[in-house]
Design goal:
With 348 residues, the chain is mainly α. It contains 15 helices and 2 strands. The radius of gyration is 22 Å and the shape is globular.
C-alpha cells in the first residue's frame, strides 16, 4: 500500500514539474507572439502617419518601458524565489551546508555545483505551486496578494471590453489575457496599452454585442467571494481548488464576450458606447473591491499592524513579486489616464 502511495506521489510531482516548465515556455512564447503583433502594427502605423502623429505615437515607448520594467522586476523576484526554494531543498539533501545564524539564506555562488539532475530532482520533489500559494496568502502577505488580485480583475475587465471582441481589432487578444494568467498583470497591461496606442479603432458606427448584466455580474460575484475567502482557507483541503477557481473566473469576462456565447440576453450597442454596456460590471467590481480592501486592511491594522503589513512586501520573493506588480499596476494605470484622458471613459 505504501509503495502505491509513493508511486502516486512521484507521478504528481513529475506532473507538477512538467507544468512548471510548461508555464515558463508558454509565457515566453506568448510574449513573443504579442511582440511580433505589436512590431508589425507599429511598422504599418509608422509608414502611414505624419511627423506630428508619429511624435504623438511615441508615447507607446513609455508603456514599452513599463513592460520591460515589469518583466525585469518579476524575473528578479521569481528567480530569487526559485533559488531560495532550491537552496532549502539542497540543504535538506546535504548538497549545501546549513546557513549560519546571521545568514538565513545562502546565496548561490560559482563554487556551488548545480547539475541538471539535481535541478530535476528539486522540481519533482518540491511543491512549488503549493508553497508559493501558501506564502502569498498567509498573514500580512495576504494584503498584498488581494490587492494584486483586485487589480488583475480590473485589468481583465478593461482588456476584454477594449479588445477584439468589442471595438478594437487587437489580434490574439487571448494571448494578453493568457500572459496575465501566467505572469502578474502589469506586464500584460503594459503590452495592451501599447496595442491600444498603435492599433486602429474601428468606425464608431460599428455595432457590437455585449452580454446581459446578469451574465457579466455572476462570475464577478463568485470571483470576489473566492478572493475574500482565500486567506481563510490556507492549510485546508479547499485551498488549492479555491485558487484554481479564482484563475478560472478571471477568464469569464473574456469568454462571455465570445460570439458563440452571446445568445444569453445579449444586446447590440455602438462601439463608441462600449463601456456604458459594461457599467454594471464596473460598478459591481468597484463595490466588491472596496469591501475586500476595507476588510483586509482592517484585519491587517487590527492584527500585525499596517506598517508591518506594508513591510511584508520584502518578507519573501513570492510576496515581492505580487506586491511590486500591484504598485506597477497603479503607476501604469495612472500614467495611462494622464497621457490618454480621452480613452479613459466609463459611462454611468
Amino acid at each position: 500500500m505504501a509503495s502505491v502511495e509513493n508511486e502516486a506521489n512521484a507521478i504528481r510531482n513529475v506532473s507538477g514539474a512538467l507544468i512548471f516548465v510548461a508555464y515558463i515556455l508558454a509565457a515566453l512564447l506568448l510574449t513573443c507572439l504579442i511582440a511580433v503583433d505589436l512590431y508589425q502594427a507599429y511598422r504599418f502605423r509608422s509608414l502611414s502617419l505624419s511627423k506630428t502623429s508619429k511624435y504623438q505615437s511615441n508615447r507607446s515607448y513609455v508603456f514599452v518601458s513599463f513592460a520591460v520594467l515589469s518583466f525585469s522586476t518579476l524575473s528578479y523576484h521569481m528567480m530569487s524565489y526559485l533559488c531560495y526554494s532550491y537552496q532549502r531543498w539542497a540543504v535538506s539533501k546535504s548538497l549545501l551546508p546549513l546557513p549560519g545564524r546571521h545568514q538565513p539564506r545562502i546565496p548561490l555562488g560559482p563554487a556551488d555545483v548545480i547539475s541538471a539532475t539535481h535541478v530535476w530532482q528539486w522540481l519533482t520533489q518540491s511543491t512549488l505551486f503549493r508553497d508559493f500559494a501558501q506564502t502569498i496568502c498567509e498573514k500580512s502577505a495576504s494584503w498584498w496578494t488581494q490587492q494584486a488580485l483586485l487589480a488583475t480583475m480590473a485589468s481583465v475587465l478593461f482588456i476584454s471590453a477594449e479588445g477584439k471582441c468589442s471595438r478594437r481589432q487587437v489580434p490574439h487578444l487571448w494571448a494578453y489575457l493568457a500572459v496575465g494568467q501566467i505572469l502578474p498583470i502589469s506586464f500584460a497591461q503594459s503590452l495592451f496599452f501599447v496595442a491600444m496606442i498603435i492599433m486602429p479603432v474601428p468606425s464608431p458606427s460599428r455595432m457590437v454585442q455585449i452580454p446581459s448584466s446578469w451574465v457579466q455580474c455572476l462570475p464577478l460575484v463568485a470571483y470576489y467571494i473566492s478572493v475574500f475567502s482565500a486567506p481563510f482557507s490556507v492549510g485546508k483541503m479547499v485551498f488549492l481548488p479555491l485558487l484554481i477557481t479564482i484563475r478560472v473566473l478571471l477568464l469569464c469576462p473574456f469568454v462571455f464576450r465570445l460570439p458563440a456565447l452571446q445568445g444569453f440576453g445579449s444586446t447590440a450597442i455602438p462601439a463608441q458606447n462600449i463601456h456604458s454596456g459594461y457599467s454594471a460590471s464596473y460598478k459591481l467590481a468597484l463595490f466588491c473591491s472596496i469591501i475586500v480592501f476595507v476588510h483586509r486592511t482592517y484585519l491587517a491594522w487590527d492584527g500585525v499592524g499596517f506598517s508591518q503589513t506594508l513591510a511584508a512586501i520584502t518578507s519573501d520573493p513570492a510576496v515581492s513579486a505580487l506586491g511590486y506588480d500591484f504598485i506597477l499596476h497603479v503607476v501604469i494605470s495612472s500614467t495611462w489616464a494622464v497621457l490618454n484622458p480621452g480613452l479613459v471613459h466609463v459611462s454611468p
